Amino acid sequence: MERHFEREFEELKERLLWMGGLVERAVHRATHSVLDADGALGKEVLAGEDAVNEMQLEIDERVTQLLALHQPMASDLRFLLAVTRINADLERIGDQAVNIAESADRILRHPQVKPYVDLPRMSELAEGMVRDSLNALVRRDVELAKSVLLRDDQVDRLRDQVFRELLTYMMENSSVVYPAFELILVAKNLERIADHSTNIAEDVIYIVAGRDVRHPAADRR
Amino acid sequence: MKLRALDTGFVLLAGLAILLIVAMLAVILGNITIHGWEQVSWEFISAAPETGMTEGGIFPAIFGTVLLVLLMTIFVVPLGVAVAIYFSEYADRNSWLYRWSRQAVNNLAGVPSIVFGLFGLGFFVQFVGGGIDNTLFGGQLTFGQPALIWAALTMAVLTLPVVIVSVEEALQAVPRHYRDASLALGATRTQTIFRVVLPQAMAGVLTGGILAVSRGAGEVAPILFVGAAYFLPHLPTRLNDQFMELGYHIYVLSTQSPDVEATKPLLYGTVLVLLVLTFLLNLTAIAIRARLRLAAGRTR
Amino acid sequence: MTTMTTRDFPLLKTHVPERKRAPAELTAKMDIERLTVRYGPRAAVDQVSLPVYANLITAVIGPSGCGKSTFLRALNRMNDTIPGVITEGQVRLDGKDVYAPGCDVIELRRRVGMVFQQPNPFPKSIYDNVAFGLRVNGLVKSRAELDSRVESALRAAALWDEAKDRLRRNALQLSGGEQQRLCIARALAVAPEVLLMDEPASALDPVSTAKIEELMFELKKDYTIVIVTHNMQQAARVSDYTAFLLTGSLVEFNPTPHLFTTPTDPRTEAYITGRFG
User: Fold this and answer.
1) If you count DSSP H runs as helices and E runs as strands, how many of each does chain C have, helices first?
2) ipTM over 0.90
3) How far apart are alpha carbons C193 and C112 in whole angstroms?
4) Which residues of chain C have a CB within 8 Å of the CB of A38?
């Protein structure tokens, strides 16, 4: 028997995934604003920030109401708790995308420091992780979620590489400090985006399998 | 231990009481059946009495008794149901009307049967009957004398309290929520009573009827002056006819018979027939009530 | 936009959220003003005022003995059947006070139907139960019309499938949940405008309760519903507006999501969180 509240859950999920879509697009536009030296893309990201924030507020309000009015149990309860966390992570990813767009604006005022090698790789990975964590949510795919968790290390390594490279450039040539510094920030933002995607993937596993896979090293005794 | 002994003691006492009652019943019925059985025959039941009650049958008395009881029931049941409905459903418990009528019914229950007989004579026969004669028959004596209808009415007044009490109890037993449900659907109080409450209380109505019938078949004092006759050559056909009645017949046979020994067998026979008749009347009513209960019970 | 055109964002295509529903216009089907109901010296309902909006479900919650049932029964003047009850204030149905002299109580009870806590079908057949209201009010002229109205009432109460082959059988043979739906059908048969439900599911098992709750969502489209319940969670699940009563007085009346997430009155908060003494 379909219960009335099931529709409300569906609507909530729709909104969460829509927000995911907005955020995914923002990340893509922001990174390509840097990589393709396209200032217009960066402006689009900044323009879309309000929509993302509004959606976050709406989702939180809906979750509060669903908890108060429907006393959900078991998987419904896990779903709602995870939605609040995913919601927060998506909003943070959105913020990181905005940061990247702002950095892009400043970077583009200077000539390109060096050919981009690692940054495109990082951005591919990070974008992929965002996309896959959301797809894992849509398809309730635990394996896909786990694959996201595995890529985080790669992203961390790439970030370290970018740091080392750019630091070397900055030490050798003081005129590139501004853009190089901004590029380091961009790498940092991408690494944060990857982290948040990892969180989302962990929440998906929680929703689907009921297992809390956060902080496996923490002593649970 | 003491409690156990008390328990067993009480059970024994109760058993003894039951035995006593059964024994008494057995003695009475036994005596009557033994002596009356040989007297009862088809002829006895179907023929009229002959030669000064020493021979023949008692059919007219049987006929009269049945007619009396039927007529009484026709009067007492609707009236009793109406009063019971008033008490149960309409009356304001604080009003003087309710309190006075309640008292009246209670007192009525305590009046000795012979007083009913005198009442019947004074009120029904002389006052009402005389009045009818004066107004409708120009003074000619038609209703102003002992008659079937006056006897039936007197008996109805006598058995009224018992009917009222049974019906009222049955009405009160109908759960309140049925009335609520009916009223909430837009039914009036009257509709609720007649469509919901009364049908459910039907078993109680029949109980009242049964109790009335038992008394009606057996009481003699009320009909002494009001309609019963010792010997009539014909059966009662009109409401203002007199009638023979079993109980009255027994009374006369045993007190005013010229030859006691000769009439003794007839007496036993008549008593047996009266008992059997009462029993049959009761049985019919009980059977109808059981049918009703079964029909309702099938639904539970 | 350069590389944008080669990338696709499927989520933005497939999961477009519906626009937020604009709040519907509210009309008050019933308006209660300073309603006070007394048995003797104590007021069971004390100066309660609130609107009952059309085609919405209004819940009345509160601890035992707070007067919610008395309040409900005042809406269709069922308290009149209790001797010694004094009612003051106004209860307006479509603008007209039902306690005004000259108001037809019988017609009122047809327009404002009631379902009770204990399922109480008459010991008659299913058909006769549903037809009862139609018959006593003289609402149908022909047998065919009666048949069709009985059927639509049973359908509206989600009981037709279970009952259609058993119409002549006695209603008391149905299960508790079915009996309660029969009582709902019986009330719906006379085409009321408002349905008052006094703890309709408290005597039922969880599955039957869920069915009744789903039924209420369906009924909302055509009727205005007022439900009294001691089960707060039920009020939260089902109603659009909630009124909280305490010892006969109205403490708070608000849209349900508001009342259950951020109640205005601290007493409401104490009751909802279960911290009542």
Assistant:
1) 11, 10
2) no
3) 6
4) 1-2
